[in-house]
UniProtKB/TrEMBL annotation:
Source organism of this protein record: Candidatus Brocadia sinica JPN1
Name of the featured protein: Ribosomal RNA small subunit methyltransferase E
Domain Ribosomal RNA small subunit methyltransferase E methyltransferase: 77-238
An example Gene Ontology biological process: methylation
Catalytic activity: uridine(1498) in 16S rRNA + S-adenosyl-L-methionine = N(3)-methyluridine(1498) in 16S rRNA + S-adenosyl-L-homocysteine + H(+)
Cross-referenced SUPFAM superfamilies: alpha/beta knot, PUA domain-like
C-alpha cells in the first residue's frame, strides 16, 4: 500500500517524535494529514520508518514510529560527477536527475571556461540544491541522499583524483576512447569519478593536467552534449555497466 514519504534529518531516539519545518508543513498543509494517517519516514542514511500521525498542530505534528528497518535501494557503485555549472535552471535538472539515478556525490566544478561562477555564493546555493536532492530521494524511494560538495576549482579536484578506482574526464579530444570501449577494458570498479566540462569544453592544459593526475579522457558519443545531458548520460552508462 502506497504511503507518502518524508525526510527525517536525524535518527529517532524514541518511538514518538515531533516533526516541524518544511516536512511538517508538507504533511499538514499539502497532504492534509489527520491523526491516524500513515506515513513513511527516511533518514538519508539508509533507514526507513513506518509511522502514523498521533497529534497535529498548525506548525508541527507528533508521529509514532511503528517499525524501523534498513532498506538498501542504492546501486552497487559509488559514482561522483564533477560538473561545470550550467546556466539558469539547468543545474536544478542536472541535480534532480542524477540524484534520482543514484549518483552518490556531485561536485560543482569551476574551470577556466566556466560561464557560471558561484564560488562566493556556494553556501546559499548548496542549501537550495540539497533540498532538490531530498525531494528526489522522496520521489524515487531512495533512503540515501546525494551529497553535494562545495564548489571546487579544477586544480583542487585534481589533488583527489587518486582516491577513485577509475577517474574519467569527458572531452572531445581527437582519438579519445569511447566510454563504452574504456569500460570494456575496466570490467570492475566501485568508486568512479567523471568530470564534465563547461559549454566550451575543458582547455587543452586542463586535459593535460587531468591526464597527469590519472584521469582518462573519454568520449560519450558522436554528439557534443550539453552539461546536464552529459552528466545524466555518463551516470546512466556507468550504472548500466557496473551495477549488479
Amino acid at each position: 500500500m502506497h504511503q507518502d514519504r518524508f525526510y527525517l534529518p536525524h535518527t529517532p531516539a524514541t518511538h514518538e517524535i515531533w516533526l516541524n519545518g518544511d516536512e511538517a508543513h508538507h504533511i499538514l498543509h499539502v497532504k492534509r494529514a489527520k491523526p491516524g494517517t500513515k506515513i513513511t519516514l527516511f533518514d538519508g542514511k539508509g533507514f526507513e520508518y513506518r509511522a502514523h500521525v498521533t497529534e497535529i498542530f498548525s506548525d508541527k505534528l507528533k508521529v509514532f514510529i511503528e517499525e524501523s528497518k534498513s532498506v538498501d535501494r542504492e546501486p552497487g557503485i559509488d559514482i561522483t560527477i564533477a560538473f561545470s555549472i550550467p546556466k539558469g535552471k539547468l543545474v536544478t535538472f542536472l541535480i534532480q536527475k542524477c540524484a534520482e539515478l543514484g549518483v552518490k556525490t556531485l561536485i560543482p566544478l569551476h574551470c577556466k571556461r566556466s560561464v557560471v561562477d558561484i564560488q562566493n555564493k556556494s553556501g546559499e546555493k548548496s542549501e537550495r540544491w540539497n533540498k532538490i536532492t531530498i525531494e528526489a530521494s522522496k520521489q524515487c524511494k531512495r533512503n540515501c541522499i546525494t551529497k553535494i560538495e562545495d564548489v571546487m576549482t579544477f586544480d583542487s579536484l585534481m589533488k583527489t583524483a587518486h582516491i577513485y578506482d577509475l577517474s574519467l574526464i569527458a572531452c572531445t579530444k581527437p582519438h579519445t576512447k569511447t566510454l563504452k570501449s574504456l569500460l570494456n577494458e575496466h570490467p570492475s570498479g566501485k568508486k568512479i569519478i567523471c568530470l564534465i566540462g563547461p559549454e566550451g569544453g575543458f582547455t587543452p592544459s586542463e586535459i593535460e593536467i587531468a591526464e597527469k593526475a590519472g584521469c582518462i579522457p573519454v568520449s560519450i558519443g558522436h554528439s557534443t552534449l550539453r552539461i546536464e545531458t552529459a552528466a545524466i548520460a555518463v551516470s546512466s552508462m556507468l550504472l548500466y555497466a557496473y551495477s549488479a
